[in-house]
Amino acid sequence: MNSSSDFLVVGAGIFGVTTALELRSRGYEVTMIDPGPLPYPLAASTDVSKVVRMEYGDDLQYMRMVIRAIEGFHRWNEEFGENLYHETGVMVVSKTAMSGDDYLESSYRAVLEEGLKPERLSAEEIGRRFPAWDTGRYVDGFYHARGGYAESGRVVGKLVERAEQAGVSVRPGQTADKVLTDGSRVLGVRTREGENFAADHTVLAAGSWTPWLLPELQRVMTATGHPIFHLKPKDPAIFRPPGFVVFLADTPNTGWYGFPLLREGIVKVARHGGGPSLHPEDDERVVYEEDFAQMQIFLEESIPSLLDAEVVYTRRCLYNDTLDEHFWIDRHPEREGLSVATGGSGHGFKFGPVFGELIADTVEGKANDWAPKFRWRELDAKTQGVEASRFHGDAEEA
Ligand SMILES: Cc1cc2nc3c(=O)[nH]c(=O)nc-3n(C[C@H](O)[C@H](O)[C@H](O)COP(=O)(O)OP(=O)(O)OC[C@H]3O[C@@H](n4cnc5c(N)ncnc54)[C@H](O)[C@@H]3O)c2cc1C
């Protein structure tokens, strides 16, 4: 073996780097490998922005995890000496009135009952407070000041720096190729670059690449591709907070969400819905004509002032989607010395500040109240995704 440590973390996205940092803070020798450069350009975590919202319908666990994560993002802002989490507030709106147990109503009720103060919005208030949305299309919703977005690629960059400073052996330029075993015991990995990394315990946190490293996971998770668009508005002023904030535009029925003007001078819009299954390395990851057409329809009916914005960048970003859309964080049930921390399913980044403790507890075999939801589990092809804010219909329907 070329190198040996207590823990080997494979992948330096948000799952991996927070795990490496936490394990190091618990006194372990930790090595983290990644193809690099870091943050890795094709990683899901490496993006200009990710939504941080606690609105998860009636799923109180996710809501409470995000409440804790937001405290963590504020702490990171102080520790980084730079604000990479921006608490612009989040606007959650719908084309129909809140009712019954729909996503809008159950999220609104959950945050209210938690003692938080979402502000209910009528159609008139949506148009008055957020003029770019003055179309009459959205008739109900709320604004919640506690939420916003994180500059995700930059956050990962800072965390990698901190990991190095803390004494994690960070090895970009190393791509795990094969899990090394002795019977049922995992010894580490061999990389494509020809090095062997040994560890008492290996944590696979390679995002959508993970099921390719551990094929038994391919039954329960798959990489799916989702379009994002960067739009350069003609009149940037109207897309700044507080008049334009992170938005979820009836996402369970449309999938569309987005961000106010980012430091890059763009408004980013994206779709949290279904997407084609893709191989993380054998795909060009481009946005298709249908995605453009759907985006135009969304802008026409929702934010017409963005219709003449130049599309300066597009990307198809990969979710590592589990069948039920919950994360997958557990020790391998049959292979000693191996854990998996993945399955972000298009909503994982916001949990970054709470992942380290959750994942480190799990791989150490310690109890953690949040862990059971993400345990190794049996799922079959009939399993439905249950992330409440996500659009689960056909693209043509929305
Ligand atoms: C379009 C899009 C929009 C999203 N929006 C949001 C949002 O608004 N809010 C939110 O909370 N979440 C969002 N997510 C989800 C979030 O980005 C992911 O859940 C999260 O970033 C996944 O982190 P990860 O560490 O599992 O994977 P990644 O960030 O992909 O990191 C995996 C790492 O593993 C490395 N790796 C790969 N193969 C190997 C190998 N063989 N050996 C070693 N290392 C390897 C890669 O280089 C990479 O650095 C979105 C995702 C996408 C794609």
Description:
The chain has 398 residues and is α+β, with helices and mostly antiparallel strands. The chain has nine helices and 19 strands. It has helices at 14-25, 60-80, 103-113, 123-129, 152-166, 210-213, 251-254, 289-302, 352-364; strands at residues 3-10, 30-34, 50-52, 85-86, 90-94, 119-122, 140-144, 148-150, 169-172, 176-182, 185-191, 196-204, 221-232, 246-249, 256-258, 267-271, 310-322, 328-331, 338-342. The strands form three sheets. Strands 1, 2, 9, 10, 11, 12, 18 and 19 form an eight-stranded mixed beta sheet that branches. The relative contact order is 0.19. Bound molecules: flavin-adenine dinucleotide.
What name is given to the CATH topology of the largest domain? D-Amino Acid Oxidase, Chain A, domain 2
Main sheet?
A: 8 strands, mixed
Which secondary-structure class do the elements indicate?
Answer: alpha+beta
Bound molecules: flavin-adenine dinucleotide
What percentage of the residues does DSSP assign to strands (E)? Answer: 25-35%
The first-level CATH class of the largest domain is given as: Alpha Beta
Q: Rg from C-alpha positions?
A: 21 Å
How many domains, in number, for the residues? 2
What sort of overall outline do the alpha carbons produce when their principal axes are compared?
globular
Q: Which SSEs are present, and which pair or pack?
A:
Layout (H helix, E strand, L loop, with lengths): L2 E8 L3 H12 L4 E5 L15 E3 L7 H21 L4 E2 L3 E5 L8 H11 L5 E4 H7 L10 E5 L3 E3 L1 H15 L2 E4 L3 E7 L2 E7 L4 E9 L5 H4 L7 E12 L13 E4 L1 H4 L1 E3 L8 E5 L17 H14 L7 E13 L5 E4 L6 E5 L9 H13 L34
Parallel strand pairs: 1-2, 1-12, 2-9, 5-14, 12-19
Antiparallel strand pairs: 3-8, 4-8, 5-7, 6-7, 10-11, 11-12, 13-16, 13-17, 14-15, 15-16, 18-19
Helix pairs in contact: 1-5, 1-9
Flavin-adenine dinucleotide binds next to helix 1, strand 2, strand 3, strand 13 and strand 17.
